[in-house]
Write a structure and sequence with these properties.
The chain is an alpha/beta fold and about 140 residues long. It has one domain: Trna Endonuclease, Chain: A, domain 1, CATH 3.40.1350. The chain contains three helices and five strands, in the order H-E-E-E-H-E-H-E. Helix 3 links the parallel strand 4 and strand 5. It starts with 10 loop residues before the first helix and ends in a 6-residue tail after the last strand.
Length: about 140
Amino acid sequence: MNVNFRDKLTEDEVVNLLSEQLQKEGWTITKQCFGQTRGNDIEAIKDEKKLIIEAKGAKSNDYSPTKKRDYFKSGQIKSHFGRAIVKIMSEIEKNPEFIYGIAHPDDPLIRKTIGKIIPQLEGLNIKHYWVKKDDKI
């Protein structure tokens, strides 16, 4: 697979792009977490409903202390996805009335690795967002 790692989105880019799109849809962004900051990556409010999103990237930020590769391989993608599910499920247990989601870059390797299992999130009441650079989520 010929990969142009420069085209791959970091988690911070996913947070920014999805936040912009959510604002266009009428959500008010109340919190964003970047880099190694702990917490929900995106928190938003609309019509008295709260949305919590866990974002994942296709590669590390350039400043990441753990950066080792140009982009995440399939094993890392699966591991990151698993941790995102566990985090969101823990949040659902605390606040089941909120809306929850997981966001990934719309990336060929990520789609190939986990794309077929993304529909299973619906059964867990977790939305999924495929994030692109061109604003089409």
